[in-house]
Structure formats: structure tokens, C-alpha cells
Design brief:
Number of helices: 2
Strand content: 25-35%
Largest sheet: 8 strands, antiparallel
Distance between the termini: 43 Å
């Protein structure tokens, strides 16, 4: 049984399948631009990642890519995910964090691509992340046009800095 939102491109999928998936789903902004690219670990050049807790960790060196804080963005700006608007939950319902992704065949290591929607000045406004199983070719949208807000020096100090 296939998970909702999973597309299978087969084991011989072209390298551009994730880029195509993100290009078809990203929300563009007037006068802004969209940058879509595959993710490669900056430390070991690995291209396979485990996804846990909203972050992608390199299979080769186990270091995080920086999806949640903007470290994945080569421009050097940092961000945090913007709070979601109030949902349509009924009283008594609780929010549950989604489970860590696995492909329909049960694999948990993925190739990753990221789409950054940039405002006119180059600031990142939204982030989408696509995952592709390198074993069976199944791809899914992990983050879908998540709004991000720039962090300031004060935010960094609160987080403990780097």
C-alpha cells in the first residue's frame, strides 16, 4: 500500500526527479525567484540522508544538513520555521508530530532536494524539501512550502549561538 503523497519513479529514476517534484509544487512569489537543488553534505559530500525530527542527517558523517535553521542555504542567512496559523482542530483534538518518513518499501535513507522561494532581496521566504528513496525510486514531499522567518543575532543568542 502506497503512502499518501508518495510518487514512484522506479529504481532507474533520473537525477532530476526530485527537482521536477519540487518545481511542480513550489509556490512562486511575484518578482521573486525559486532555487531548487539536490542536497550534498558539505562535510563528506554524501548524498544520502536519514530524516528525523524535521532535520536531515548525512548517512556518511551523521551531521545535520541545517533545514530547520537555514544552514543548508549557501547565502549564509539563517532562519527558523514560522509558526503555523491556527488550524481547524476541534476542541479536544491534539497536534501530533508526523512520523519520520519511510518509503513504501520501508527504507529510511533518502536523497534530498530543497526548493527555496526567495523574495526580491534574496531573503528566503519558504522552503520545500523532497525526498527520494535511492533503492526503489519512490519520492515524496517532506516539507511543502513552509514559511520561514529570518533570525536575528538576538535569536542566535537565545539558541546558544554557534
Amino acid at each position: 500500500m502506497e503512502s499518501e503523497g508518495v510518487r514512484s519513479t522506479g529504481p532507474a529514476a533520473e537525477d532530476g526527479s526530485l527537482v521536477s517534484l519540487l518545481g511542480a509544487t513550489v509556490l512562486r512569489e511575484p518578482f521573486g525567484r525559486v532555487v531548487i537543488m539536490p542536497v550534498v553534505c558539505r562535510w563528506c559530500e554524501g548524498d544520502r540522508f536519514e530524516v528525523a525530527g524535521g532535520e536531515c542527517f548525512c548517512e556518511g558523517c551523521c551531521l545535520p544538513v541545517g533545514m530547520a535553521d537555514g544552514d543548508v542555504h549557501a547565502g549564509g542567512s539563517s532562519w527558523r520555521f514560522a509558526p503555523s496559523p491556527p488550524s481547524s482542530l476541534r476542541p479536544g483534538e491534539a497536534l501530533h508530530a508526523p512520523a519520520d518518513p519511510v518509503c513504501p518499501a520501508g527504507h529510511a535513507v533518502f536523497q534530498v532536494a530543497v526548493a527555496r522561494v526567495l523574495a526580491v532581496g534574496g531573503r528566503v521566504r519558504r522552503l520545500s524539501v523532497g525526498l527520494r528513496c535511492p533503492v526503489d525510486g519512490a519520492s515524496l514531499l517532506h516539507l511543502d512550502n513552509v514559511r520561514v522567518v529570518a533570525t536575528t543575532g538576538e535569536d542566535e543568542a537565545r539558541r546558544g549561538g554557534d
